[in-house]
Design goal:
By secondary structure, the protein is an alpha+beta fold. It has two domains: 11-43; 50-148. It has five helices and six strands. The protein has helices at residues 63-73, 81-98, 105-119, 121-131, 137-148; strands at 11-18, 24-31, 37-43, 50-52, 58-60, 102-104. The strands form two sheets. It has a three-stranded antiparallel beta sheet, with no helix packed on it. Strands 5-4-6 form a three-stranded mixed beta sheet. A hairpin with a 5-residue loop joins strand 2 and strand 3. Helix 1 crosses helix 4 (121-131), helix 2 (81-98) packs antiparallel against helix 3 and helix 3 runs antiparallel to helix 4. The chain is elongated and about 75 Å long. It starts with 10 loop residues before the first strand and ends in a 19-residue tail after the last helix.
C-alpha cells in the first residue's frame, strides 16, 4: 500500500481490527519513509449479477428496486421490517452464491414470490397479480389454489418467520 502522504511503497500494518458487523477490516498503517500513520479499510468486493429483462435489455441489479417490490406488495400489511430485510438478504445471498454474471428478471421475480409466500399471503397475491399479469378472476383463483397447497420441505426456509398476530 502506498503512503498517501509521501507516495512511498513501504508501509507497515501496526494494528488490524474487524468491524462490529464482521464484514470489513480496519488497518492502521505507518509509512517507513515519512513515519506518518493512516487508516485503510478492507472489505470484499462483490459484484452483483446483471438483470436480463424479458425484452433482452440488461441493467445493474438494484437492492433498492428489490426493496420497492416488497414495499409495494406489503403495503399496509403487518409484516415487520426485519423480516423484509432478511428476505431481501436471502435473495441477494442466493444470487451471489450462484456466481453468475447474469440473472433473468423472471428468476428474480420467482425468488420474490417465494419469499412473499412465506411472509404474507395477501402480499404474495398482490405481487403475483402484477408479475404474472392476471387478466381475470380465474387467474386470482388459480393463485389462491396454489397458496393452499402445502409448501414442500425444499421450498420451506429454515427460519420461516412466525405469523404476525392479528389485532
Amino acid at each position: 500500500m502506498k503512503c498517501p502522504f509521501c507516495g512511498a511503497d513501504d508501509t507497515q500494518v501496526i494494528d488490524s481490527r474487524v468491524n462490529d458487523l464482521g464484514d470489513s477490516i480496519r488497518r492502521r498503517r505507518r509509512c517507513s519513509t515519512c513515519e506518518k500513520r493512516f487508516t485503510t479499510y478492507e472489505s470484499a468486493d462483490l459484484h452483483m449479477s446483471q438483470v436480463v429483462k424479458q425484452n433482452g435489455t440488461r441493467e445493474e441489479f438494484s437492492r433498492d428496486k428489490l426493496r420497492l417490490s416488497f414495499t409495494r406488495a406489503l403495503h399496509k400489511r403487518p409484516v415487520p421490517t426485519e423480516y423484509v430485510d432478511q428476505a431481501i438478504e436471502d435473495i441477494v445471498q442466493k444470487i451471489l452464491a450462484k456466481g453468475e454474471r447474469e440473472i433473468s428478471s423472471r428468476e428474480l421475480g420467482e425468488a420474490v414470490m417465494h419469499e412473499l409466500r412465506h411472509l404474507d399471503k395477501v402480499a404474495y397475491i398482490r405481487f403475483a397479480s402484477i408479475y404474472r399479469s392476471f387478466e381475470d378472476v380465474e387467474d386470482f383463483n388459480d393463485a389462491i389454489r396454489d397458496l393452499k397447497k402445502p409448501v414442500t420441505k425444499l421450498m420451506r426456509r429454515r427460519s420461516d418467520p412466525p405469523k404476525p398476530e392479528k389485532e
